[in-house]
Amino acid sequence: MNRDLTTGKTETVLWRFCLPLFGSIVFQQLYNIADSLIAGKLIGERALAAVGNSYEITLIFIAFAFGCNMGCSVIVSQLFGAKDYKRLLTAVTTASLAGLVLCGLLMISGLLGARSLLALIQTPQEVFADSILYLNIYVWGLPFVFFYNIATGIFSAMGDSKTPFYFLAASSLSNIAVDILFVKTFDMGVAGVAWATFLCQGISCILAVIAVCRRLFKLPVTGGKPALFDRGLLAKIMVVAVPSILQQSFISVGNILIQSVINGFGAPVMAGYSAAVKLNNLVVTSFTTVGNGISNFSAQNLGARKYDRLLSCFHAGRKMVWSLCVPFVILYLFFGRPLLLLFMKEGSDAAMTAGIQFLRVLSPFYFVVSLKLTADGILRGVSAMRPFMIATFTDLILRVSFAFVLSGLMHSTLGIWFAWPVGWSVATVCSVLFYRREYRRITSQ
Q1: pLDDT tens for each residue of 395-416
Q2: Which of 290, 307, 433 is nearest to 374 (CA)?
Q3: Contact criterion met (CB below 8 Å) for 53 and 118
Q4: Nearest to 81 by CA among 14, 164, 20, 7
Q5: What's the mean per-residue pLDDT of the chain?
């Protein structure tokens, strides 16, 4: 059901809204975690390295889908908060048409340029064939990724975080079963992992689109038939979507550059990093998703002109993400080895050492990066995208630069891992200061 986020105690409303979002992202991460787990356990270390290597490139495509999600979601949230349902429907169709065109262009680019991208990041020859096989199948499933993200963005904008959770939970669990069926029973190798993800994402997308259309048809629209496309609304969507796309895609490009450094240390280290980065992404993506919920909360209250709730949102969001940090930090600091073994049959010494070091260096700084993503959520919700981008690029530039420099100075992957805390720490200071400035600007109007 739709939920008004402009009434009720902020902390209670935010927890009830964001917890299903958190659950959704856990299940969404299961898609790729399942791929790596099945590849590593049932096929081998090289398959795990290939899936992890391709994953960094798929994040670029996901960045564009995420941008469509955020652009549509923030503008629909503002219109929902203002109860302007006619323009809300126009915003939905406008975002869908723009997303369709963008998805088509990305599919063409992905199918034609996958081999060049893999060569660019110095993919070792022993994992090259499996990497491109996985990547090509993934690209054919991009329409499912795009329209699922648009549908869930609309649900979140209208205060409903539970419905997409139900769809995603079912499809993610199904993905694990189909992964095992295709790989173990049908002996399809890496192709089986990729096709399982393709099928389950498709089912999830179709169900989500049908459900959101039924929900939209029930809105009490007055003043005539909504327009199919509106340039003004597209411009507003792009104000949020383009910086979000740039944020995620440049981060992905940065990760690809870092991946190219890691690839120089060989397939075992690639496999250890592939397993560890999945665990890390589970946490960071969870914080990002909570930040998305904060964006929806902020956007609805901005539309309703309840500016005082933006401050309480920041404090409530900080408590939420820090409470999520505690169990993850404990797990990754003290139980890294058994967690990494979930992805590998046994794991070579080089793979295990790289993975454990990565988790131990990064996990204490989850308290830092989660604060940044909380502030970023409010900046996106109030459409303050320029400061949002500055903080994001600060993190990216520092992380990539230090990865190259420290790995060369220390002659080990440990130097690469230290680049993450540097970027996160400086960017967090920027985001919090920008949030405080925007809050003062809005409340002084």
Answers
A1: 888 988 988 888 777 767 788 8
A2: 290
A3: yes
A4: 7
A5: 85
Q: For 232-268, how does the pLDDT look when each residue is reduced to its tens digit (9 = 90+)?
A: 999 989 988 888 787 777 777 777 788 888 887 777 8
Helix (H) or strand (E) holding 222: none
The H-assigned helical ranges of 39-124 are 45-81, 85-120
Asked whether the beta carbons of 218 and 88 are under 8 A apart, the reply is: no
Distance (Å, whole) CA 122 – CA 380: 35
Written as one letter, the residue type at 131 is S
- Token duo for residue 412: 């080990």
List, for residues 3-16, the tens digit of each pLDDT value.
677 788 888 888 88
Which of 24, 58, 43 is closest to 148 using CA atoms?
24
Closest CA to 412 of 309, 204, 266, 225: 266
377 neighbors 298 (Cβ within 8 angstroms): yes
Burial of 238: CB neighbours in 10 Å, binned 0-12, 13-18, 19+: middle
pTM of the prediction?
0.71
CA 237-239-240 angle, to 5 degrees, is: 70
If we measure between CA atoms, which residue out of 176, 166, 153 comes closest to residue 73?
153
Question: What's the maximum distance between 2 C-alpha atoms anywhere in the chain?
Answer: 68
3-class DSSP state for residue 84? Answer: coil
